[in-house]
Amino acid sequence: MDDTVGRVPCMIAVPLPDDIPSWVVPLRAAGARPPLFCVCGGGGSPLGFRDFALALPQDQPVYSFEIPPLGIARTVPTVAQLAIAYVDAVRRLQPHGPYYLCGHSFGGLVAYEMAALLAGVGEPVGVVALLDTLHPRHKRRMSRRDRFIFEARYLGDRVLKYAHNLGRGRPERVLRDGALFIVGRAKSLYWRATRVACRRLGQPPPILISSEALMVAEAWHAYEATDHDVPLVLFNAAERPAEFRRDLTLGWRACVSRPFEVHLVPGDHCSLLHPPHVQTLAHRVAPYLGVHAGADQTMDTVRT
Fold first, then answer.
1. Distance between CA atoms of 187 and 185, rounded to whole angstroms?
2. Integer Cα distance of 41 and 270 in angstroms
3. What is the rounded (10 degree) CA torsion for 140, 145, 149, 152?
4. DSSP strand E in the chain: where?
5. Which of 182, 255, 258, 292 gives 20 to 30 Å between its CA and that of 9?
6. DSSP readout, 161-172?
7. Contact at 8 Å (CB) between 265 and 115?
8. Contact 40, 66 (CB under 8 A)
9. How many CA atoms lie within 13 A of 68 on its CB side?
């Protein structure tokens, strides 16, 4: 049975200081090791890291940060603004480093900026673990040839998927996938048009029409990542679509000068954080937290 901390069920009931925001969730607040601070992706619940926390060694504290409610701000927050808010909470929980950070999807960008802020004030950063985080410049930096290959693989993979489902007598899956594709593209075009219109008017996107997913899209597109000298390691989903397999670093290799490692872990963008795949993810992440888990760090690893 789960205990309750604040407004959400947590693994261990340990009261947080009164000045810690409600969007900081202790998944495991007790343990002898420095805590791991995890940043959720867009639309992700702070409990999305629950299975991950359970799979890590029992003496590893884990805190999860969700995106603050949109109602607390008049404008859509940027990656840098989120990082500032999160670092403030982190330093209230842990005044000094080394700091261990991780982020899933969009949350990886925020964790990367958090590490830069901490390093900028002289605090050591143990690791920044990016969980299937696509760099915003992944497609922007592609040559025409690479972009053509990317789009061709995208179309080819989807056509094969639809043909496979039709061949197995699953027309409902084809209709479902087609509907998801159309809705996704419509949302993307809607938010792109809104973003362009607001930029030309010199106004921020109005909160009233901003869902969290649209806010994340705006922050992601507006983010200009610089080359921070912080320790990175990438854990990318092995089941990402075919168009992403040409660059296993998901665009980070072209934007970061410091060497880093890339681990391919089982699962897709979402399932890597849940059973049965999360056990492998935790097994791979644990050694970077100073926990000897006996993981083979050479298996499915790219050093760049």
1. 5
2. 10
3. 90
4. 3-5, 8-10, 24-28, 36-39, 62-65, 99-104, 125-131, 232-237, 261-265, 301-303
5. 292
6. HHHHHHHTT-HH
7. no
8. yes
9. 20
Pairing mode, strands 125-131 and 99-104: parallel
CB 114 within 8 A of CB 251: no
SS3 state of residue 278: helix
pLDDT tens track for 200-216: 777 665 554 455 666 77
Which tens digit of pLDDT belongs to each residue from 141-194? 666 776 655 565 656 555 666 666 566 676 766 566 666 666 556 666 666 676
SS3 label, residue 192: helix
Contact 174, 284 (CB under 8 A): no
Could you tell me where the beta strands, DSSP code E, fall in 85-199? Answer: 99-104, 125-131
Pairing of strands 8-10, 99-104: unpaired
- Structural domains in the chain? 3-136+224-303 (3.40.50.1820), 144-220 (no CATH)
Q: Which one-letter amino acid corresponds to residue 156?
A: G
DSSP state of 69: P
Helix (H) or strand (E) holding 265: strand 261-265
From CA 216, how far away is CA 300, in angstroms rounded? 30
DSSP 223: -
Report pTM. Answer: 0.76
Residue 6 CB neighbours (<10 A): 15
